[in-house]
């Protein structure tokens, strides 16, 4: 079975730990990469600098509220890039603002999920993402 490459773009260390824990507690082999801000995420995706040998992610889990370059900018840049636009992007953010939801879908996010406030619900959400995107959905091969 192929190792699934996931790029988590998240600046909150606690949320990174929760996501890692939820993804590790399953039988789906995955390799979680973490970018702590939008600039780091784009360097990873474009294989720049220290990320020259980075794998192409099968899935990006993206927070909107990031330092340096926010998630909306990352999403817009990804979806306007011929080499990156086919990578599915799951927005996982604390924002429940209707304008963020609409804008994310207008920028071609594949889904939008508001982060739950408690630990158990957060783990359930990450497991649901994993179950849907890594078990049911056919992901595109690298182009």
TrEMBL record:
<feature type="domain" description="Response regulatory">
    <location>
        <begin position="5"/>
        <end position="130"/>
    </location>
</feature>
<dbReference type="GO" id="GO:0000160">
    <property type="term" value="P:phosphorelay signal transduction system"/>
</dbReference>
<dbReference type="Pfam" id="PF00072">
    <property type="entry name" value="Response_reg"/>
</dbReference>
<keyword id="KW-0597">Phosphoprotein</keyword>
<feature type="modified residue" description="4-aspartylphosphate">
    <location>
        <position position="63"/>
    </location>
</feature>
<protein>
    <submittedName>
        <fullName>Response regulator receiver domain-containing protein</fullName>
    </submittedName>
</protein>
<dbReference type="InterPro" id="IPR052893">
    <property type="entry name" value="TCS_response_regulator"/>
</dbReference>
<dbReference type="InterPro" id="IPR001789">
    <property type="entry name" value="Sig_transdc_resp-reg_receiver"/>
</dbReference>
<dbReference type="InterPro" id="IPR011006">
    <property type="entry name" value="CheY-like_superfamily"/>
</dbReference>
């Amino acid at each position: 079975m192929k190792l699934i490459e996931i790029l988590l773009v998240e600046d909150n260390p606690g949320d990174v730990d929760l996501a890692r824990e939820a993804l590790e507690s399953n039988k789906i082999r995955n390799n979680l990469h973490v970018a702590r801000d939008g600039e780091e995420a784009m360097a990873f995706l474009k294989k720049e600098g220290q990320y020259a040998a980075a794998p192409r992610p099968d899935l990006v889990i993206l927070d909107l509220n990031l330092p340096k370059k926010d998630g909306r900018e990352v999403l817009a840049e990804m979806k306007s890039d011929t080499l990156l636009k086919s990578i599915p992007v799951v927005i996982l953010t604390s924002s429940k603002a209707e304008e963020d939801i609409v804008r994310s879908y207008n920028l071609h996010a594949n889904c939008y999920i508001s982060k739950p406030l408690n630990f158990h619900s957060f783990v359930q959400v990450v497991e649901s993402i994993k179950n849907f995107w890594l078990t049911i959905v056919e992901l595109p091969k690298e182009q």
